[in-house]
Design brief:
- The protein contains nine helices and two strands; from the N terminus they run αββαααααααα.
- The N and C termini lie far apart (70 Å).
- It has a two-stranded antiparallel ribbon.
- α6 packs antiparallel against α8.
- The protein is mainly alpha-helical and 256 residues long.
- The N terminus is likely disordered.
- Helix content is 73%, strand content 5%.
Length: 256
């Protein structure tokens, strides 16, 4: 039975109906190796894709900056300025709704930055890249930055109330409350990483197992869902959790 299946598989591969397993790549590849401070460092697919994503964001920012300088306040803005204004206004309104008008200006730039970076990174698969957020080494630092911001604002605004809250409602809840504090960056990073990685794996398998002619058309619908829709949803979830956790650390009296 096994030999029969193997013969069928080899026959399909020979007819170019499926690709060889060696063509399927799901992991991160290393392009170069460096030895520094007694440790080996690698230039990987993730680093290259991050640089490309950053270059895209930087090019967009420079283009918007030049368009803003040349804009005539007495005339209607061009398409690029319309897109930029709509993006900034949407992110500012979202920050105000979740963090309050008093704190929104303090965090709007950070929320906007991670929103743009995560979204572009998530949808980079549309341009043939391996999404950087499919690497846990990218999503964990993003979540840790948010976690540090949560703790900083918690101690800044609640002071010793932050420590007191770990023992509420009773002393026995201290271990559970402490674990929940450290679980925040883990859950945020794993949620983003898992969703983007699953889409990357599915598309890699499809491109690896289907004939090239079919992959020119059919996976477009999957790219629209796994890259564009799912990437947008995960971006929204990450920034929403960031705003909610930070606002909760600040306290209701500060976000009114």
């Amino acid at each position: 039975m096994t030999s029969g299946i193997a013969c069928v598989s080899q026959g399909l591969a020979g007819m170019n109906l499926i690709r060889a397993d060696s063509d399927i790549s799901l992991g991160v590849k290393a392009y170069a190796k460096y030895h520094l401070f007694g440790q080996d460092f690698y230039l990987t697919t993730t680093h290259v894709c991050i640089l490309i994503v950053m270059a895209i964001i930087l090019a967009f920012a420079i283009a918007v900056n030049r368009a803003a300088k040349k804009a005539d306040p007495e005339k209607a803005p061009g398409p690029l300025m319309n897109v930029a204004e709509m993006l900034v206004e949407a992110l500012d309104n979202l920050t105000v709704q979740n963090m309050g008008p008093k704190n929104a200006p303090k965090f709007a730039n950070y929320i906007g930055t991670i929103a743009v970076f995560i979204f572009i990174a998530n949808i980079s698969g549309l341009f043939g890249l391996r999404a950087p957020t499919a690497d846990y080494g990218v999503t964990l630092p993003l979540a840790l930055i948010t976690w540090v911001m949560i703790q900083f604002n918690g101690f800044k605004h609640q002071k010793m109330g932050k420590i007191k809250g770990l023992f509420e409602p009773i002393f026995l809840f201290f271990p559970i409350n402490l674990i929940s504090e450290f679980a925040t960056p883990v859950s945020m990073s794993l949620r983003l990483f898992g969703n983007i990685l699953s889409g990357t794996v599915m598309l890699s398998l499809i491109y690896g197992l289907l004939p090239k002619v079919v992959t020119l058309v059919w996976p477009a619908a999957l790219h629209a869902y796994l890259d564009l829709f799912s990437g947008g949803i995960q971006t929204f979830v990450f920034i929403m959790l960031t705003m909610v956790f930070v606002a909760d650390a600040i306290g209701d009296e500060e976000t009114a």
